[in-house]
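Memo to structure team: turn this sequence into structure tokens by end of day. - J.P.
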Amino acid sequence: MQSPPCSYSDPSGLPPAFEPNWNLDLSALLTLNRAALLQVDRHGRILKAQGAITDLLGIEPEQVQGQWFRSYLPLQARDAWSQTFRTQILARRMHQRTRWQLERADGAFISVEQTVALQLDNGVVVGAGFWINALPDVEDVISPLLESSGETDLPEDHKAGQLLHRLLDHLPLMVFILRGTEVAYINPAVARLTGYGLEELRTSFAVDLVDTADWVAVFEHIARCLETGQAEHFEQEFRHRGGSRRWADVSVTRLVDSDGSYLIAGIATDITSRKSAEAALLESEARSASLINSTAAEIHSVNHQLQLTAFNETFRERFTAMNGFAPGPNLPVLNGFKGAERSFWQIHYERALRGDSFIVDYQPQRTDFRGAQEIYFNPIRARNGNVNGVAVYSLNVTSRRQIEHALALSETRQRVLIDNIHDALASLDKDLRLITMNATFRQRIKALYDVEPEIGQLLAIPLSDIKVAEAWMERLQRVLKGERVQFEERIESNGIVIDTDVTLTPIFGDDASVEGIAITSRDITDRKRIEAAQRDYTRRLEVLQELDTELSQLRQLEAVFETAINAAVRLTGASAGAIHLLEGDRLRLVRAIGGFKAASAQGVLIPLDRGITGRVARTLEAEMVLNVHKDPDYVPNVPTTRAQITVPLLARESLIGVLNVQSDDPRRFNEQTFKFVRLFAGRVAAAIDNARLYEAQEKQVAELQALYAQVSDLEQLKTQMIRITAHDLGNPLVTISGYVEMLDMELHDQLSQRHQEFLRILAESADRIDRISRNILALERANTAKNGLITEAVDIVTIAQQIIGEYRNQAARQNKTLRVDLLPQALVLQVDRILLQEAISNLVGNAFKYTPEQGVVSLAVRSEAEEIVIEVGDNGYGIPLDQQAGLFQPFYRVKTEQTKGIKGSGLGLSLVKTIVERHGGRIDFNSAPGQGSTFYIRLPASLRVITDPAGIETEPADLPRRPSRSGRKPSKRKTTAL
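Reply from structure team:
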């Protein structure tokens, strides 16, 4: 509906261009500025309300309708307000910008400014409109807004539709409404605060107030507000007519006009004083950071001996005034302090010298200084990162703290202690009486102690433990002395147990003395529970590692069963447990503890289609059942069981049995326990498989001993056993490596650094066993080739390049230099490619292993008159002279202080020697402790393949051939008898 034309003329004689009315919803704009509009009748009863009612009074706008406005004032102020309101009605005059305190629903008080406009009907006052906005507590911030524009006689014939318009005209805030780029309404406050007349502003609002360049940003806010319907809030610089520059805090929102078009309504507050203060503060901080003698801050630095190395003029003047003598370079700085101050400085110097960078609030006990200091301690680091001194920046922050305190008092009481935060917040005065608290604090105290805390009461929490009460009083006294205290506390009361993280912070007054205490208490029960579970899981992993070692040493199946089931029950807190082994298509119970029925005695066979155990054996999937009585497959074997974890035992990717643990309390089992049992089951399966293999090996050894009773070479027997083991380790190693890799891929981001280290050790151990197995198998192949080698024409230079390529990344990671000296042309030999490549790779691997970081490893290939020489050298630890004799014996390892932590099997050099000798060559070396080692593979020149001028390869004349495995004569792959 089109708004009626306005008959009211403003005191300037200019008719307003826009006439708002009470049907216009300004709630969004008002809420942004913590303001409210109230329409009341002539007796002060509230008829309509919009805006920040909830923020101001703590209740919804609908709840104030029909209430008396005076009921929201303190009791002692109600009569004064009623008298003022009656005077306004009788005089039919507007009383501008009166201040009152309103009582919120939560009992707190808020300071507000009230502007009143009377509503007349044929000259009779029928009601009024109130504009109420919250006032900050800092007087200096709002003082520019309190200048009165004077009272104005109101005509007799104003209607209700003009009430809001007249109220806006007398506000100290700048109010404007835009229709597109045209000004629809500007209140007189805009003219007062900018120096321009209303008519000038209506015709050239943009040109006169805001620079052209700034209008781009302003219109972005307006366009976004028009597009989204969301309020925009920004700060903008504008020009005063007198030439000065000023700042405004602007809020704009979108309105809908009577014809359906969009309007932009805005409220602006002059914040020039605040911006000036911010600019001055930034300038002051910039000067303080420049470390020049003109700064008011005390700046100095000390070395490790706490001797002065540098200081500014302010420090020199203060030091001289305190001590009667001037400071100088290398002067012990602690000589300038006495008593408690000396201890204070020494403690913080030493902390910074350890590498900490921190800030300390300090109030020196000196006659020449009163107030607060903010002291910055920063370690001075050399290029290598070592701390070689401390830089100290001491700033007088008394004024800043006073401002912060004034703002903190307002913000803390009105905004910080909000009821929807999960932390319990409260503040005390210095007599330990409650000043403020939030709902969480109130609810927690009531739940724990059945006490309803009230504002003004002493903090008297009934604590069952007198020691806890004494500890609280001791901490509160420390805070009242200016110390910030933080601690964790477990509270057990009224059947409730919670863990809390408590921070007690001093509240400083204007004179830098402590006026109260702020309490922040955070419920960390869940975090503590998680930490405890993590510690328990870590402990289990540590025990698991120990059990892994113990199980790996057991050779008898019965011992494995006994150790495994007892450990599983003990570490999971279970009440019973059992191990079943697979026999054909059934499971045999081989070990059980914890009250199993006679029907489930040891040795009983169980079909795979019976019970949870049979189901797990069929599916090969571990299960955790927290209520066995709801599981249709459950077969009771322990009467008290309520929960059960059942895990398949897998060895070499095949089922060998099932492990289960049972509990009479389901709360003992969780995901961490389930994960642990699955890990433990893998160890148990490996131990059972190893024990079985050991028994088979023992049987095989007995047969070999009977067969070779006359054989005296026990070393050969041991080697044969190791070969058998190496063959049998293949599948378990593939399984271990695969599961370790899967665990690392799936859980890498969830694992701690320590757990990642466990996985790395597992992977390295598996790789080490694999290398040992391959060495043994290569040695076996070399030894079994007594009647000939499987040879082919091989370019030895190409093999050397391939091996070097495999070690380049390792050289980069270990910061080692890799030097190569190879022939520029191919050097083709008739050799066993696999064995010779294994021999060279072993020597290069040893060189890397026994060379420290920044060492050098070299590989060279050269052709001499009678020999082909492959040389592998390093500048590592070297070999002691007294240990060189047995170097090529199987399982022989050099033992020195530098090499005792290096892992190996002792088969590598024995393998190299065997391979080289099978090719008719020889191996020698030279080495000295601390100077490194060089090994030489010397192959006969007769192995070289000669290429005739036509490019056709010819075999060495003295190398007889044997038929290939297919019975046909090979073309390139040859058999050489050595």
